[in-house]
């Protein structure tokens, strides 16, 4: 019995780390699938990034949580959903607790700077000067870090 207890004490942390690594891999795969869906949208809409918000009858739609019915997400998630058709990819299995508003992944709000206006439209891909250095989606704890918008004075991102 002592040998079994020693083996269990050694192996349980190893199994827990392996399970967390698998969850992290799933989170990375989710970000990739979201980005691929967004790029499909971008290609379908004349190389324009998805809108920052989706407006129905003059009202921005959102928020949602894991426990709510699937409705429009803040940011781009509802238009991306048409390409990925899997609600679960918006939620990371490694995330602790309930995701804030729209899942566990963040969107680069500079790709839709018209959030300050009523158009909520995304920008053209050509306006991104350094695409290899610009994130599209990333793993995050909230749908945005703050309510202000970081923009480039030159209009290039």
Number of strands: 4
The proportion of strand residues reads 5-15%
Mean pLDDT: 72
Approximate shape: elongated
Query: How can the largest sheet be summarized?
Result: 2 strands, antiparallel
Distance between the termini: 63 Å
Description:
The chain has helices at 2-44, 77-84; strands at residues 55-56, 59-60, 105-107, 137-139. Helix content is 32%, strand content 6%. Helix 1 (2-44) crosses helix 2. The chain has 157 residues and is mainly α. Strands 1-2 form a two-stranded antiparallel sheet.
Lay out the secondary structure.
Layout (H helix, E strand, L loop, with lengths): L1 H43 L10 E2 L2 E2 L16 H8 L20 E3 L29 E3 L18
Antiparallel strand pairs: 1-2, 3-4
Helix pairs in contact: 1-2
Quickly list its features.
6% strand, 2 helices, 157 residues, mainly alpha, disordered C terminus, elongated, two-stranded antiparallel ribbon
Brief write-up:
The protein is mainly alpha-helical and 157 residues long. It has helices at 2-44, 77-84, and strands spanning 55-56, 59-60, 105-107, 137-139. Strands 1-2 form a two-stranded antiparallel ribbon.
